Amino acid sequence: MRNTCGAWSLANELGIKRAALKAAGAKTIYREKVSGVRADRPQLGKLMAQIGSGDIVVVTKLDRLGRSTQELLDLIERISEAGAAFRSLGDPLWDTTSSQGKLLCTLLAAIAEFERDLIRERTGDGRKRAMAAGVKFGRKPKLSDYQRAEAIKRRTAGERLADIAKSYAVDISMISRLT
Question: Residue ranges of the alpha helices (H) in 24-159?
Answer without folding.
Answer: 42-50, 69-81, 99-132, 145-156
